[in-house]
Amino acid sequence: MLRVLVADDSRVMRQIVIRTLRQAGYDWEVTEAADGAAALEAVRADEPDVILSDWNMPEMTGIELLHALRAEGFQTPFAFVTSEGSPEMRETADAAGALFLIAKPFTAESFRDAIEPVLA
Fold first, then answer.
1. How many Å separate Cα 97 from the centre of its chain?
2. What is the DSSP letter of 36?
């Protein structure tokens, strides 16, 4: 079973992401983090198979988290689930090595469309 870390400063948003994953047919083992710093600690303690992170979070943003993980040598597949998906953000995410960026509002289908090619 795949293990996913969901990082978002909104508990409600974490629940929505988890529910959407389930609706998309991904019955993964989920760990939650309330910000990028907590997510970094979680990965150091027990690296998951996939990280789904918000972009804007206190303590450490999603993009800072991605940079920190790569700097420490973690190659964990990383993707953004965020409220805005501007072309600039998508370019920054791509340049940093993110697999994809899903912008809200999202559906089970948009999750599947983004995740399936990565799992293949």
1. 12
2. H
The CA–CA distances, whole Å, from 96 to 2, 3, 7, 45 equal 23, 22, 17, 23
14/100 Cα distance (integer angstroms): 18
pLDDT in tens, 11-56: 999 999 999 999 999 999 999 999 999 999 999 999 999 999 999 9
CATH number of this structure's domain 3-119: 3.40.50.2300
pLDDT in tens, 61-89: 999 999 999 999 999 999 999 988 899 99
Tokens of 79: 């993707």
Domain ranges of the chain: 3-119
C-alpha torsion sign, points 98, 82, 86, 72: negative
